[in-house]
Every structure is written in structure tokens, then in C-alpha cells.
Amino acid sequence: MGSWRAGPSARATGMALGGVLAVWIASDWPIGALGAGYLASVHTVQFLLFTLVAPPLLIAGVPRARLERAAARPVFRRVARVVSAPPLALAIFVAVLVLTHLPPVVDTFKRSQLGSFAFDVSWLAAGVILWWPAVLPIPEIRSLTYPARIGYLALAAVTMVAPSAFLTFARFPLYATYELAPRIGLLSAANDQQVAGLIMRSAGGLIFIAAMSVLFFRWQREEAHPGRPRTGSPAGAR
Asked: How many C-beta atoms lie closer than 10 Å to residue 198's C-beta?
């Protein structure tokens, strides 16, 4: 975010630090420990931090000059164009979303520290891939119009409805990892799972709405002032 310059602006640096902070909060105590094996609701908070909060901030914090140098390399440019294609980016995100919320996968990987780390890495990677087309496409790789970015993020938000409903309306606990864990607080395993679904639906939806609102207002500002230099932001630079 902020204007693109040869070096990172103070705002871009702040965004990058915010992304690092989000990763740290999601992985460190208490969220990291509680999400790994105690509360499904905190597991969902981790998911949102790794996929919807940290990635757009980290991408927005990358200096424009560094991206242009990377884009000048043919191999990087070809790979980035493929991965940043909106259909593929969304498909990868949905695949990771579904896979990391399947009960057998959760119960298998959450038993170990290495398995939990694999979840964190896959979430962060899927989040970066998801947000790249909307947040920071540069002409050398791919550039979407503002309406296309808004529609893309709206579709991404819709993909989270089914998994959140899966958690919210299940009649019994789906994950042995969280059902058999010592109870923390007053929530039963079933109630904790319902809260997880509600967090995914409500908090996740609010994040997407906020991003789409930023895109819309930047679009309107650029339409009203077509001669003004465009800026890099969570909405991206066209």
C-alpha cells in the first residue's frame, strides 16, 4: 500500500510488519497451542490469520522494484502467470481449505508438531496464491480490472460457505483431536465446533467485504481522477 517507489514506503513497510505480526500471532502461544490440539474455534482463527490476514499484508509490503526484478526473470514470470491465474488460484485455495478441514486429515496431522507446522505452511501458501491476483498484480505478470478483482474476491468468499456450514450444523463433534482434548472454558466440543463454523463464516466474510470495499473506493477514486498516479494497495495496482 502507498505509492510505488524505488524503495519500500513507510506504509508498505508497515503492511509487511503487520503480515509478519499476523503470522506470529497465529503460530505462537496461546493461539498456536490452542489451535493445534484443544479448540476447533481457535484452529479456525489460525486459518483466517494465515490465509486471509497475513498474505495480503505481506504481498502489499513487497517493494515494487523487487517485484519488477523478479518479473524480469523468464522462469519466475512464467510460473507466476500460471499460479496467479484467478481460476487456478481459487482452486488451490479451495483445495487447501477443504483438505485441511477433513476430519481424518485434521486428526492425523494435528497429533504432531510437524503436522501442525505443515498446516500452517499450507495455509499461508494458499493465502498468498489466493490474494496475489487481487492484491498486487503487476503488468509483467497479470493485471485484472477492479470489477474483476471484486468479483474474484466475492467468489472466494462464497467458497467458504459450505465448510463453515459443515462445522456449524454438524450434529456431533467431527474431530477427535478437539473432542478428546481437555476442555478449556465452558464450551463443549460440539459448541466449540459450532463457534468455529460461525467464525469462519462471519469473520471470513467481513475480511472479504473489507477488501472488496477498498477495491471499490479505489476504483471510484481512480475513475474520478484518471490523471492521478495509481497506488499499490490491498486492492492492488492496475
From this structure: 15
> Could you give the maximum distance between any two Cα atoms of the chain, in Å?
61
CA 210 to chain centre: 13
Tens digits of residue pLDDT in 89-118: 999 999 999 999 999 999 999 989 999 999
pTM to 2 decimal places: 0.88
* Number of Cβ within a 10 Å radius of residue 151: 15
Question: Rounded to the nearest 5°, which phi and psi values hold at 180?
Answer: -90, -5
* H-only helix segments in the chain: 10-27, 31-37, 40-48, 54-60, 64-71, 74-83, 86-99, 103-109, 113-135, 146-158, 161-168, 176-179, 189-224
The C-alpha atoms of residue 111 and residue 192 are separated, in whole angstroms, by 19
Neighbours of 223 (CB within 10 A): 9
